[in-house]
Specification:
Largest sheet: 6 strands, mixed
Low-confidence stretches: 9-14, 16-36
Number of helices: 8
Strand order of the largest sheet: 2-1-6-5-4-3
Radius of gyration: 20 Å
Distance between the termini: 73 Å
Mean pLDDT: 82
Strand content: 15-25%
Structural class: alpha+beta
Shape: globular
Helix content: 40-55%
């Protein structure tokens, strides 16, 4: 016979599930369809809601909603947080966006991967490694600003955790980084990236198609020589 504690826990869990479904349904009924989800209208990265919530894990209700296919805006907020970290040169904030165990990176536009199949392109790297790569890029382009053609938008459907973004960066190659001297040329790069954000609101995989800056091209040449 189940204990009173078990019955109480089951009742609480059922209440939370019903509440999550009610909140989602009520929101859809109250708000006009055109206003319930229009993240692509943002042209610049959104700052995290607060310094406290930016690094915390989702609460139980949020996690239930995510598992039920709701709360898409929470996944989008993680990707906004990543781009905001790049935009504000906040490396710790960038690192916080990724899972502690690291993330799979698939840079399908890399010259080194042109003859490699999609399945073999990916490699697991640490969050700290990704933060360091961003730092090196920002040292070369200290005035770089991130903007969106199409800002972070999560795919529809219960099992779709992918957040897509069409971004571009502008600035100047005015800093020396990784032994490559600046030539003061303008920075104009863009790309389309999709981020797999798990139910703990951490990025676990990135697929990138992008152009390269002159600093990156010079760095690759130096590494191959």
């Amino acid at each position: 016979m189940p204990s009173s504690n078990t019955s109480s826990q089951n009742a609480t869990l059922l209440t939370l599930v019903l509440l999550a479904a009610f909140v989602s349904t009520s929101t859809a009924l109250i708000l006009p369809r055109s206003n319930t989800h229009s993240p692509h209208l943002h042209t610049t990265p959104r700052a995290p809601a607060s310094s406290t919530s930016s690094s915390s894990s989702p609460n139980l209700l949020q996690k239930l909603r995510l598992r039920l296919g709701h709360g898409k805006h929470l996944r989008e907020a993680v990707v906004h947080k990543y781009f905001h970290g790049v935009d504000t040169k906040n490396i710790p904030q960038i690192v916080e966006c990724f899972h502690p165990d690291g993330a799979i990176i698939r840079d399908v536009s890399s010259l080194a991967n042109k003859d490699v199949s999609y399945e073999e392109v990916g490699k697991v790297v640490s969050a700290e490694f990704l933060g360091e790569r961003c730092r090196e890029f920002l040292e070369a382009h200290p005035d770089a600003k991130v903007m969106f053609h199409y800002s972070p938008t999560c795919g529809r459907g219960r099992n779709n955790n992918w957040v897509h973004a069409h971004w571009y960066e502008e600035g100047t190659w005015s800093g020396n980084s990784q032994g490559i001297e600046a030539d003061m040329s303008p920075l104009h790069v863009q790309g389309q990236t999709r981020f797999w954000v798990d139910d703990d609101l951490k990025i676990r995989e990135i697929v990138i198609t992008r152009t390269f800056s002159r600093w990156e091209e010079s760095l690759i040449k130096a590494q191959l020589s």
